[in-house]
Amino acid sequence: MNIRLPVTLPPAPDELLSSWISRHAAFYAVTPQTILNHCLPEAASLRAVDLHLPKGQARRIASMFSTDSTTVRSMTFEKATKPVHRFIARVPIQSCVKYTPSMPGPVPIRRSQLQGWRITCPICGDWLHDGTRADDSKALAPYRDAALQGEKLLNDEAEGGTPSWGSPMELARLLLIRRISWPLPREDDLWRYRVLGVLIPEFDAILATLTSFHHSPKHPILPLHVRHALLAGVAIVHRSGPEMLRMLQWHTFGPTRNKFIQATDHLVSPVIEWGPPQQMQLI
Fold first, then answer.
1. How far is CA 4 from each of CA 31, 39, 43, 45, 63, rounded to the nearest angstrom?
2. How far is it between the farthest Cα atoms of the chain?
3. pLDDT, tens digit (0-9, with 9 covering 90-100), for 236-268
4. Quick check: 139 pLDDT over 90?
5. Residue 272 and residue 63: Cα distance in Å, rounded?
């Protein structure tokens, strides 16, 4: 049996499990891995328990920290599927200016600070910040309502909800696939054109001011100043239905078009032909 810690710290609202464990480690002047190994010697890392925590392990942590397993599991991303994991950062990527916990010791890390689909704080509802360009956020102001709808769609899926006809997370990744633009741009500028720009022309204008853009279906966490566009695009596609995907197919080209069609044909073609929706296969 695990030995219960004599003193435990209350978790902060929306705190990440690894953060809570790390704060206890600081209190007891040991490493976070020492605390974790004492309770779960089989656990590979703090990141691993944040993403996947079986019920048995949750009960052992709860026993050690004198709490209940429901509280422990609420600090993880246990309901997140593999596609959702692509949208969970390894380190904090954003913060809420208004919400500053008033407690001694290390500052807690909240789940929302790692969630690559969030643009608002789940505690106070204020806009999150990450130090990126505010001018671009202003350019996307007309899409804020749609972006909030997109945020809710992705968050519902991440928390275990069932999408109506297509995964919002996979729709977001689809919108980051490269597209063809007319007149045909120079080869060096092809990276500036993504499917998202068909729905949100301002996205094209923003990328035109950048010297590089390293985000893709494989790396879909966008900085906040352009994340509004991606979330709004997801809301637009989700509201419009599979026919919107059929239209977007024609804006892709070459190998990227093949990937787009493979990922969406089961949605845009009759269900009787393709059967139930399958998970989209993107790189």
1. 17, 10, 18, 21, 7
2. 69
3. 999 999 999 999 999 998 888 888 998 888 888
4. no
5. 50
